[in-house]
Amino acid sequence: RKGSVIITGASSGLGLATAKALSETGKWHVIMACRDFLKAERAAKSAGMSKENYTVMHLDLASLDSVRQFVRNFKESRRPLDVLVCNAAVYQPTAKEPTFTADGIELSVGTNHLGHFLLSRLLLDNMKQSDYPSKRLIIVGSITGNTNTLAGNVPPKANLGDMRGLAGGLNGLNSSTMIDGGDFDGAKAYKDSKVCNMLTMQEFHRRYHEDTGITFASLYPGCIATTGLFREHIPLFRLLFPPFQKFITKGYVSEEESGKRLAQVVSDPSLTKSGVYWSWNKDSASFENQLSEEASDVAKARRVWEISEKLVGLA
Ligand code: NDP
Protein backbone atom coordinates (compact mmCIF):
# COMPACT_ATOMS: atom_id res chain seq x y z
CA ARG A 1 0.00 0.00 0.00
CA LYS A 2 0.87 3.69 -0.25
CA GLY A 3 2.37 5.39 2.78
CA SER A 4 0.00 7.67 4.67
CA VAL A 5 1.40 10.98 5.93
CA ILE A 6 -0.22 13.91 7.72
CA ILE A 7 1.43 17.31 7.09
CA THR A 8 0.22 20.30 9.10
CA GLY A 9 0.25 23.68 7.36
CA ALA A 10 0.49 22.10 3.91
CA SER A 11 -1.33 25.03 2.28
CA SER A 12 1.84 27.00 1.58
CA GLY A 13 5.63 27.17 1.75
CA LEU A 14 7.58 24.18 3.05
CA GLY A 15 4.48 22.09 3.85
CA LEU A 16 3.06 22.46 0.36
CA ALA A 17 6.42 21.80 -1.33
CA THR A 18 6.79 18.62 0.76
CA ALA A 19 3.23 17.48 -0.02
CA LYS A 20 3.96 18.01 -3.71
CA ALA A 21 7.29 16.16 -3.60
CA LEU A 22 5.77 13.16 -1.80
CA SER A 23 2.63 12.98 -3.92
CA GLU A 24 4.72 13.01 -7.12
CA THR A 25 6.45 9.77 -6.10
CA GLY A 26 3.08 7.98 -6.29
CA LYS A 27 4.06 6.18 -3.08
CA TRP A 28 2.32 8.49 -0.61
CA HIS A 29 -1.15 9.68 0.24
CA VAL A 30 -0.81 13.12 1.85
CA ILE A 31 -3.34 14.33 4.40
CA MET A 32 -3.04 18.10 4.25
CA ALA A 33 -4.05 19.30 7.74
CA CYS A 34 -4.91 22.96 7.21
CA ARG A 35 -6.86 25.78 8.82
CA ASP A 36 -8.14 27.14 5.49
CA PHE A 37 -9.77 24.34 3.52
CA LEU A 38 -10.27 26.26 0.27
CA LYS A 39 -6.75 27.69 0.27
CA ALA A 40 -5.34 24.18 0.73
CA GLU A 41 -7.46 22.72 -2.10
CA ARG A 42 -6.40 25.53 -4.42
CA ALA A 43 -2.75 25.17 -3.40
CA ALA A 44 -2.80 21.43 -4.10
CA LYS A 45 -4.40 22.01 -7.50
CA SER A 46 -2.00 24.74 -8.55
CA ALA A 47 0.94 22.59 -7.43
CA GLY A 48 -0.36 19.98 -9.89
CA MET A 49 -1.05 17.33 -7.22
CA SER A 50 -3.46 14.69 -8.44
CA LYS A 51 -6.65 14.03 -6.53
CA GLU A 52 -5.91 10.42 -5.59
CA ASN A 53 -2.69 11.46 -3.84
CA TYR A 54 -4.07 13.85 -1.23
CA THR A 55 -6.94 14.69 1.13
CA VAL A 56 -7.49 18.06 2.79
CA MET A 57 -8.69 17.91 6.41
CA HIS A 58 -9.48 20.88 8.61
CA LEU A 59 -7.11 21.60 11.51
CA ASP A 60 -6.65 24.86 13.39
CA LEU A 61 -3.67 24.43 15.69
CA ALA A 62 -4.60 27.61 17.52
CA SER A 63 -7.56 25.80 19.09
CA LEU A 64 -7.17 22.70 21.26
CA ASP A 65 -10.80 21.77 20.47
CA SER A 66 -10.00 21.85 16.77
CA VAL A 67 -6.96 19.61 17.36
CA ARG A 68 -9.13 17.08 19.21
CA GLN A 69 -11.80 17.27 16.50
CA PHE A 70 -9.19 16.71 13.79
CA VAL A 71 -7.94 13.61 15.61
CA ARG A 72 -11.52 12.27 15.91
CA ASN A 73 -12.15 12.88 12.20
CA PHE A 74 -8.88 11.24 11.27
CA LYS A 75 -9.59 8.17 13.42
CA GLU A 76 -13.06 7.88 11.87
CA SER A 77 -11.53 7.95 8.38
CA ARG A 78 -9.86 4.61 9.24
CA ARG A 79 -6.74 5.60 7.34
CA PRO A 80 -3.46 4.28 8.69
CA LEU A 81 -0.95 6.82 10.00
CA ASP A 82 2.65 6.10 9.06
CA VAL A 83 4.29 9.53 9.29
CA LEU A 84 3.22 12.74 11.03
CA VAL A 85 4.89 16.01 10.05
CA CYS A 86 4.40 18.95 12.43
CA ASN A 87 5.23 21.80 10.07
CA ALA A 88 2.75 24.67 10.50
CA ALA A 89 3.93 27.82 12.25
CA VAL A 90 3.19 31.48 12.80
CA TYR A 91 5.86 34.15 13.12
CA GLN A 92 5.00 37.67 14.32
CA PRO A 93 8.28 39.62 14.34
CA THR A 94 6.66 43.07 14.23
CA ALA A 95 3.75 42.48 16.61
CA LYS A 96 3.69 45.07 19.38
CA GLU A 97 1.04 43.27 21.40
CA PRO A 98 0.50 39.55 21.90
CA THR A 99 -2.43 37.74 20.30
CA PHE A 100 -3.95 34.57 21.65
CA THR A 101 -5.25 31.14 20.69
CA ALA A 102 -8.88 30.13 21.27
CA ASP A 103 -7.70 28.85 24.65
CA GLY A 104 -6.12 32.17 25.62
CA ILE A 105 -2.50 31.13 25.12
CA GLU A 106 0.05 33.39 23.40
CA LEU A 107 -0.34 32.58 19.69
CA SER A 108 3.20 31.60 18.57
CA VAL A 109 3.90 29.11 21.34
CA GLY A 110 0.22 28.07 21.43
CA THR A 111 0.20 27.21 17.71
CA ASN A 112 3.75 26.11 16.93
CA HIS A 113 4.37 24.12 20.10
CA LEU A 114 1.23 23.35 22.13
CA GLY A 115 -1.12 22.62 19.21
CA HIS A 116 1.45 20.22 17.77
CA PHE A 117 2.21 18.73 21.19
CA LEU A 118 -1.43 17.75 21.69
CA LEU A 119 -1.78 16.57 18.09
CA SER A 120 1.23 14.29 18.21
CA ARG A 121 0.39 12.89 21.64
CA LEU A 122 -3.16 12.02 20.50
CA LEU A 123 -1.98 10.46 17.23
CA LEU A 124 0.82 8.37 18.73
CA ASP A 125 -1.50 5.37 19.14
CA ASN A 126 -2.42 5.49 15.46
CA MET A 127 1.25 5.42 14.55
CA LYS A 128 1.87 2.51 16.93
CA GLN A 129 -0.90 0.55 15.18
CA SER A 130 0.49 1.14 11.69
CA ASP A 131 2.25 -1.82 10.04
CA TYR A 132 4.39 0.46 7.87
CA PRO A 133 8.08 -0.56 7.93
CA SER A 134 9.42 2.91 8.83
CA LYS A 135 7.16 5.07 11.00
CA ARG A 136 8.27 8.62 11.72
CA LEU A 137 7.23 11.67 13.72
CA ILE A 138 8.89 14.81 12.42
CA ILE A 139 8.76 18.23 14.06
CA VAL A 140 10.16 21.07 11.94
CA GLY A 141 12.75 23.00 13.92
CA SER A 142 14.80 26.04 13.06
CA ILE A 143 18.29 27.42 13.29
CA THR A 144 16.89 30.63 14.80
CA GLY A 145 16.15 28.78 18.00
CA ASN A 146 19.74 27.53 18.13
CA THR A 147 22.05 29.85 19.97
CA ASN A 148 25.12 27.82 18.92
CA THR A 149 24.80 29.21 15.38
CA LEU A 150 25.35 32.66 13.90
CA ALA A 151 21.68 33.05 12.91
CA GLY A 152 20.62 31.89 16.36
CA ASN A 153 22.59 34.70 17.95
CA VAL A 154 20.72 37.51 16.23
CA PRO A 155 18.82 39.23 19.04
CA PRO A 156 16.36 38.63 20.58
CA LYS A 157 17.79 35.19 21.38
CA ALA A 158 15.70 32.20 22.32
CA ASN A 159 15.71 31.56 26.05
CA LEU A 160 13.18 29.55 28.05
CA GLY A 161 14.57 30.69 31.40
CA ASP A 162 12.90 28.91 34.32
CA MET A 163 9.67 28.61 32.29
CA ARG A 164 7.55 30.51 34.79
CA GLY A 165 5.49 32.07 31.98
CA LEU A 166 4.80 28.73 30.36
CA ALA A 167 3.85 27.22 33.71
CA GLY A 168 1.43 30.12 34.19
CA GLY A 169 -0.27 29.44 30.85
CA LEU A 170 1.10 32.39 28.76
CA ASN A 171 -2.25 34.14 29.17
CA GLY A 172 -1.23 37.73 29.87
CA LEU A 173 -3.60 37.83 32.85
CA ASN A 174 -1.96 36.22 35.82
CA SER A 175 1.10 35.14 33.87
CA SER A 176 3.52 36.58 31.35
CA THR A 177 2.92 35.90 27.64
CA MET A 178 6.56 34.78 27.29
CA ILE A 179 7.92 31.40 28.39
CA ASP A 180 10.70 32.97 30.47
CA GLY A 181 8.33 35.40 32.14
CA GLY A 182 9.61 38.48 30.25
CA ASP A 183 7.86 41.18 28.23
CA PHE A 184 6.17 40.20 24.98
CA ASP A 185 8.46 39.98 21.95
CA GLY A 186 7.01 38.32 18.84
CA ALA A 187 10.35 37.32 17.29
CA LYS A 188 11.54 35.78 20.55
CA ALA A 189 8.23 33.97 21.09
CA TYR A 190 8.73 32.27 17.70
CA LYS A 191 12.30 31.25 18.52
CA ASP A 192 11.25 29.96 21.94
CA SER A 193 8.48 27.93 20.30
CA LYS A 194 11.05 26.34 17.95
CA VAL A 195 13.26 25.42 20.92
CA CYS A 196 10.18 23.73 22.43
CA ASN A 197 9.67 21.86 19.13
CA MET A 198 13.23 20.54 19.19
CA LEU A 199 13.08 19.63 22.91
CA THR A 200 9.75 17.84 22.35
CA MET A 201 11.20 15.74 19.53
CA GLN A 202 14.02 14.57 21.81
CA GLU A 203 11.68 13.86 24.74
CA PHE A 204 9.48 11.77 22.42
CA HIS A 205 12.61 9.89 21.38
CA ARG A 206 13.60 9.16 24.98
CA ARG A 207 10.11 8.12 26.04
CA TYR A 208 8.91 6.18 23.02
CA HIS A 209 11.56 5.22 20.49
CA GLU A 210 12.67 1.95 22.07
CA ASP A 211 9.17 0.64 22.71
CA THR A 212 7.52 1.74 19.48
CA GLY A 213 10.32 1.73 16.91
CA ILE A 214 9.03 5.09 15.70
CA THR A 215 11.73 7.44 14.38
CA PHE A 216 11.53 10.88 15.97
CA ALA A 217 13.34 13.64 14.07
CA SER A 218 13.64 17.38 13.62
CA LEU A 219 15.33 19.43 10.94
CA TYR A 220 16.47 22.81 9.78
CA PRO A 221 15.41 22.91 6.12
CA GLY A 222 17.55 25.95 5.20
CA CYS A 223 16.46 29.56 4.92
CA ILE A 224 13.38 29.52 2.70
CA ALA A 225 13.32 33.30 2.43
CA THR A 226 10.31 33.44 0.08
CA THR A 227 7.61 31.70 2.16
CA GLY A 228 4.58 33.24 3.83
CA LEU A 229 6.36 32.97 7.17
CA PHE A 230 7.69 36.47 6.64
CA ARG A 231 4.31 37.91 5.64
CA GLU A 232 4.07 40.07 8.75
CA HIS A 233 7.52 41.56 8.35
CA ILE A 234 8.01 45.14 7.13
CA PRO A 235 8.06 45.51 3.29
CA LEU A 236 11.73 46.51 3.12
CA PHE A 237 12.70 43.36 5.00
CA ARG A 238 10.65 41.21 2.65
CA LEU A 239 12.33 42.83 -0.35
CA LEU A 240 15.90 42.47 0.88
CA PHE A 241 15.79 39.21 2.84
CA PRO A 242 15.83 36.76 -0.14
CA PRO A 243 18.85 38.37 -1.94
CA PHE A 244 20.62 38.79 1.41
CA GLN A 245 20.24 35.07 2.11
CA LYS A 246 21.16 34.13 -1.48
CA PHE A 247 24.30 36.20 -1.88
CA ILE A 248 25.57 37.11 1.59
CA THR A 249 24.79 34.28 4.02
CA LYS A 250 24.36 31.69 1.23
CA GLY A 251 21.80 29.97 3.44
CA TYR A 252 19.02 30.51 0.89
CA VAL A 253 17.07 27.51 -0.26
CA SER A 254 14.14 27.43 -2.72
CA GLU A 255 10.76 26.18 -1.58
CA GLU A 256 11.10 23.27 -3.98
CA GLU A 257 14.51 22.25 -2.60
CA SER A 258 13.34 22.59 1.02
CA GLY A 259 10.35 20.38 0.18
CA LYS A 260 12.70 17.73 -1.17
CA ARG A 261 14.70 17.88 2.04
CA LEU A 262 11.69 17.39 4.29
CA ALA A 263 10.41 14.66 1.95
CA GLN A 264 13.75 12.87 2.54
CA VAL A 265 13.22 12.99 6.29
CA VAL A 266 9.74 11.49 5.68
CA SER A 267 10.73 8.67 3.35
CA ASP A 268 14.44 8.24 2.67
CA PRO A 269 15.57 4.76 3.83
CA SER A 270 18.90 6.20 5.02
CA LEU A 271 17.33 8.77 7.38
CA THR A 272 15.81 6.38 9.92
CA LYS A 273 17.95 7.29 12.92
CA SER A 274 15.83 8.58 15.81
CA GLY A 275 16.50 11.63 17.97
CA VAL A 276 18.33 13.47 15.17
CA TYR A 277 18.21 17.12 14.08
CA TRP A 278 18.94 17.03 10.33
CA SER A 279 20.56 19.79 8.31
CA TRP A 280 22.00 20.01 4.79
CA ASN A 281 25.39 21.25 3.63
CA LYS A 282 26.16 23.44 0.61
CA ASP A 283 25.97 20.43 -1.71
CA SER A 284 22.52 19.60 -0.34
CA ALA A 285 23.76 16.49 1.45
CA SER A 286 22.08 15.71 4.77
CA PHE A 287 24.04 15.49 8.02
CA GLU A 288 23.26 15.10 11.73
CA ASN A 289 23.53 18.59 13.19
CA GLN A 290 24.29 19.66 16.76
CA LEU A 291 21.63 21.41 18.80
CA SER A 292 22.39 24.35 21.08
CA GLU A 293 22.93 23.71 24.79
CA GLU A 294 19.40 24.80 25.66
CA ALA A 295 17.78 22.92 22.77
CA SER A 296 19.43 19.69 23.95
CA ASP A 297 18.95 20.17 27.70
CA VAL A 298 17.43 16.93 29.02
CA ALA A 299 15.96 18.47 32.17
CA LYS A 300 14.37 21.32 30.21
CA ALA A 301 12.89 18.85 27.71
CA ARG A 302 11.22 16.95 30.54
CA ARG A 303 9.91 20.14 32.10
CA VAL A 304 8.53 21.46 28.77
CA TRP A 305 6.80 18.08 28.33
CA GLU A 306 5.28 18.08 31.81
CA ILE A 307 4.05 21.67 31.75
CA SER A 308 2.70 21.23 28.21
CA GLU A 309 0.76 18.12 29.27
CA LYS A 310 -1.03 20.21 31.87
CA LEU A 311 -1.73 23.12 29.52
CA VAL A 312 -3.32 20.94 26.83
CA GLY A 313 -5.32 18.89 29.32
CA LEU A 314 -3.43 15.59 29.14
CA ALA A 315 -2.36 15.56 32.79
P1 NDP B 1 4.44 29.48 5.69
O1 NDP B 1 3.90 30.68 6.40
O2 NDP B 1 4.51 29.52 4.19
O3 NDP B 1 3.64 28.20 6.11
C1 NDP B 1 3.12 28.03 7.39
C2 NDP B 1 1.89 27.17 7.32
O4 NDP B 1 1.36 27.03 8.65
C3 NDP B 1 0.79 27.76 6.46
O5 NDP B 1 0.26 26.70 5.68
C4 NDP B 1 -0.21 28.25 7.46
O6 NDP B 1 -1.56 28.20 7.02
C5 NDP B 1 -0.02 27.22 8.57
N1 NDP B 1 -0.62 27.66 9.83
C6 NDP B 1 -0.39 28.80 10.52
N2 NDP B 1 -1.19 28.85 11.61
C7 NDP B 1 -1.93 27.72 11.60
C8 NDP B 1 -2.94 27.20 12.45
N3 NDP B 1 -3.38 27.88 13.52
N4 NDP B 1 -3.49 26.01 12.14
C9 NDP B 1 -3.09 25.32 11.06
N5 NDP B 1 -2.14 25.77 10.22
C10 NDP B 1 -1.57 26.96 10.48
O7 NDP B 1 5.90 29.28 6.31
P2 NDP B 1 7.05 28.19 6.03
O8 NDP B 1 6.65 27.24 5.00
O9 NDP B 1 8.31 28.94 5.88
O10 NDP B 1 7.12 27.45 7.45
C11 NDP B 1 6.95 26.08 7.61
C12 NDP B 1 7.86 25.57 8.73
O11 NDP B 1 9.21 25.78 8.39
C13 NDP B 1 7.64 26.26 10.06
O12 NDP B 1 7.67 25.28 11.08
C14 NDP B 1 8.83 27.18 10.18
O13 NDP B 1 9.16 27.42 11.53
C15 NDP B 1 9.88 26.34 9.50
N6 NDP B 1 11.06 27.06 9.05
C16 NDP B 1 10.97 28.01 8.04
C17 NDP B 1 12.11 28.66 7.63
C18 NDP B 1 12.06 29.69 6.55
O14 NDP B 1 13.11 30.24 6.25
N7 NDP B 1 10.93 29.96 5.92
C19 NDP B 1 13.41 28.36 8.22
C20 NDP B 1 13.38 27.36 9.24
C21 NDP B 1 12.23 26.74 9.62
P3 NDP B 1 -2.19 29.31 6.02
O15 NDP B 1 -1.74 28.91 4.65
O16 NDP B 1 -3.65 29.14 6.24
O17 NDP B 1 -1.64 30.63 6.45
Folded structure, characterized:
The protein has 315 residues and is an alpha/beta fold. The chain has nine helices and eight strands. It is 42% helix and 13% strand. The chain has an eight-stranded mixed sheet with strand order 3-2-1-4-5-6-7-8, sandwiched between helices. Helix 3 (64-77) runs parallel beside helix 4 (107-129), helix 4 (107-129) packs parallel to helix 6 and helix 6 (186-212) crosses helix 9 (298-311). The model has no long low-confidence stretch (mean pLDDT 95). It binds NADPH dihydro-nicotinamide-adenine-dinucleotide phosphate. The site of NADPH dihydro-nicotinamide-adenine-dinucleotide phosphate has 30 residues, from helix 1.
Q: Structural class, from helix and strand content?
A: alpha/beta
Can you tell me the overall shape? globular
Task: Give the C-alpha Rg.
Answer: 18 Å
Major pleated sheet: 8 strands, mixed
> Could you give the distance between the termini?
36 Å
Extended strand count: 8
Strand order of the largest sheet: 3-2-1-4-5-6-7-8
> What is the H/E string?
EHEHEHEHEHHEHHEEH
Low-pLDDT segments, ≥5 res: none
* Percent helix range: 40-55%
Bound molecules: NADPH dihydro-nicotinamide-adenine-dinucleotide phosphate
Beta-strand content estimate = 5-15%
* Overall residue-averaged pLDDT value: 95
* Tally of alpha and pi helices: 9
